[in-house]
Design brief:
253 residues, 5 helices, Umud Fragment, subunit A, alpha+beta, eight-stranded antiparallel β-sheet
Length: 253
């Protein structure tokens, strides 16, 4: 009995005391502990979402019909932001880019909405589920990269890239490759872009007098759209049609 009483009266170590106090605190303040855990999880999720949105992926919606039939109005697309700084942008890719200057004209002031709506928009923006600056971006298809010589059109009404005619299956039904003639050489680190709905797309063809002369410099590119994510009935991987450009030679140095 003496040994048992001695063991019970033995002093506890500091580590064991801390664990016991923490356990007692959690029992007394279970709601506080739950709240702290919840806030920690939410903050961690926001940070991870912010990093993903800033460096990896973003969501945009389609505001116009310039990419029919590939993209429909109000479709949501997911954009890979590693393109073109890490992964190169290729002919045929569907690209999202900021206005290089003069393409969108003067945008009307935007109503910020109710404060609760602003908070909701901010949260959706941080997580990459929405894009409040969507109206400052455009979506087109890359037809030419730096150095390419692009001409419209040959005797068969086809666009040629570096002297090779291309047949474009992604063009909207009934649309011509282009109703506007052009003969351009794409500057280095720039792109020549066109909408799939060629008869209803204000693309590179129509901006020769803007600062970029119709070309989209690499610095304005947000990324490559690779999937239609919403509505679910429109879900599709976005093809860049490599067979269209497989016979196009490299541009002359």
């Amino acid at each position: 009995m003496a040994k048992k009483e001695k063991a019970e009266k033995a002093p506890r170590g500091p580590f064991k005391e801390s664990r016991l106090k923490l356990r007692e605190l959690k029992k007394k303040n279970s709601f506080l502990a739950l709240a702290i855990d919840t806030v920690t999880i939410l903050v961690s999720a926001l940070i991870i979402s912010f990093v993903i949105k800033t460096f990896l992926f973003r969501s945009f919606y389609i505001p116009s019909g310039s990419m029919f039939n590939t993209l429909q109005i109000n479709d949501r697309i997911i954009v890979n932001e590693l393109v073109p700084n890490v992964i190169p942008l290729n002919r045929g890719d569907v690209v999202v880019f900021k206005d290089p200057g003069g393409w969108l004209g003067t945008l009307p002031p935007k109503d910020p909405g109710h404060p609760l709506q602003q908070i909701g928009d901010w949260l959706l923006s941080v997580t990459g589920l929405s894009s409040p600056d969507n109206d400052q971006h455009l979506v087109k298809r890359v037809i030419g990269i730096g150095g390419d010589h692009i001409v419209c059109c040959d005797a068969n009404n086809r666009i040629t890239v570096n002297g090779t005619a291309i047949i474009e299956p992604y063009i909207a039904n009934g649309a011509n490759p282009s109703d506007t003639e052009f003969d351009v050489v794409v500057p280095s680190n720039s792109f020549w872009v066109m909408g799939d709905n060629r008869s209803n797309s204000e693309d590179s063809r129509y901006h020769p007098n803007t600062p970029g002369r119709g070309f989209v410099a690499k610095e304005y590119v947000v990324g490559r759209a690779f999937v239609v994510s919403w509505p679910f009935s429109h879900f599709a991987w976005l093809d860049n049609y490599p067979n269209v450009f497989k016979n196009v030679p490299d541009p002359k140095p």
